[in-house]
Amino acid sequence: MSREKDRNSSLSRYISLILRHHPEIAGVTLDSHGWADVHELIEGINRTRQIDAETLANIVATDSKGRYSFSEDGTKIRANQGHSVKVDVELEEREPPEILWHGTGERFTRSIEAEGLRPMTRLYVHLSGDYDTAMKTGRRHGKPIVYTVKAGLMHREGHKFFRSVNGVWLTKEVPPQYLERSEKKSE
Question: Above pLDDT 90, what percent of the chain?
């Protein structure tokens, strides 16, 4: 990885920490929809690291997970999902596909199979539209395990689903009866 890519990756993780969990570390205020003033964010980050508007725009444009969005006028920025701070990122309720996927580490399977998927410190459970993305997510937590989520059935039985602008499916919880450990292998 080049030095600039490595630096931008580190900055991206820091921006994620600020916009999703701890805006106070950069002296940033999030509005009720999770938006922060771009100039305020840049100033806050510059207290401990170096960033300018061009670097921030590059991070937003090249983030492989599509974590961030700018407002239409470019004066505000927010994380698209994954918040632990109480914000409403204006998600529209959507009908999910029949099957979604959730990747996790093997060490979490006992509690997942007993209690289902819970958002833990986040506002929503995150689900993937494809197996390979879920597997990649699971690898971040050790030996990966992927669960098939019976999203269509959940929805028909009254559970709400949302889809963030970067394609991540969100729901408040997935009870254990809607989960199956997937035996599918990566394609």
Answer: 80
